Amino acid sequence: RAMRPAREALRARVTDAHAGALILPFVAWARALRSRAGGAVVLGVSGPQGGGKSTLAAHAVEALGAQGLRAVSLSIDDVYLPRDAQRDLAARHPGNPYLAVRGAPGTHDVPLGAALLDGLRGDGAVVLPAYDKGAFGGEGDRAERARWREVRGPFDVVIFEGWMLGFTPSARLDRVAHLGAVNAYLRAYDAWHARLDALLHLDVDDLELVVRWRVESEQRRRAAEGRGLSDEAAEAYVRRFLPLYRAYLPGLREGGLEA
After folding, report:
1. Beta strand 41-46 with 198-201: parallel, antiparallel or unpaired?
2. Do residues 61 and 54 touch, judged by C-beta distance below 8 A?
3. What order do you get walking across the sheet with 71-75 strand by strand?
4. Residue partners of 17: CB distance under 8 A and separation at least 6
5. Per-residue DSSP letters for 191-239?
6. CA 251 to chain centre
7. Do 159 and 249 contact (CB within 8 A), yes or no?
8. pLDDT category, 259, cuts 50, 70, 90?
């Protein structure tokens, strides 16, 4: 009964089954955390690429609004390095498949993300950057400022989502070829994790699903924008990150950010 406004807000957009299985429980969880905190809460959402994190965040913002709570979402994709900085990073790590393209730890502007989270906790205006994944044949680049959006607080709930959010460095990986560099960059992401009040992880049993979801996501991008990675390029792109899932998911599953 208490969730009726949220359910009605979602009815035209998602099935009752999907709303009841994921979105409404997330909204109830967010409301409870906000109530206990007495102020804005920053909730992390992690999960596989193409697994529906952005969709969950968007629907949750709408449903929370129907419940009388102001919410906003931010993706780690929004704070990827600009293309020139990404190319410089790749040049500093020749032969490293994880740092050759955007996606892995090291390819984000971590201080920018932290500053945005701090701003979203406040009550002023915050300009949120955007990233154009279809630029340069799917290589991507930070979008022009005309595509950035301004939001104004105060917010009750801030949702921060990303595929590797919650991954924490492991000393055993420091000497593993190519993973060592990623592991070193990952240490800086503590600046993001320290700003989270809670983290929800959407798990996956079969990593092959990640490949399929990422290809399907790129298909939707091509249909909507007329550009993007081909199916073959999208599969090659996501497969290079599967070792990162295997390296870091066990720690996230076993102990989360306290591991």
Report:
1. parallel
2. no
3. 71-75, 157-162, 41-46, 198-201
4. none
5. HHHTT-SEEEE---S-THHHHHHHHHHHHHHHHHHS-S--HHHHHHHHH
6. 18
7. no
8. very low
Distance CA 76, CA 163 (A): 8
Task: Give percent of the chain with pLDDT exceeding 90.
Answer: 76
pTM of the model as a whole: 0.92
The alpha carbon dihedral of 91, 95, 101, 105 has a sign of negative
Query: In the beta sheet, which residues pair with residue 150?
Result: 127
Tokens 């419940």, residue? Answer: 67
Nearest CA-CA partner of 180 in 111, 93, 83: 93
Is residue 214 within 8 Å of residue 50, measured between CB atoms?
yes
Q: Please count the helices (runs of H) and the strands (runs of E) in the chain.
A: 11, 8
Residues whose CB falls within 8 Å of the CB of residue 227, separated by 6 or more in sequence, listed in order = 134, 137, 138, 221
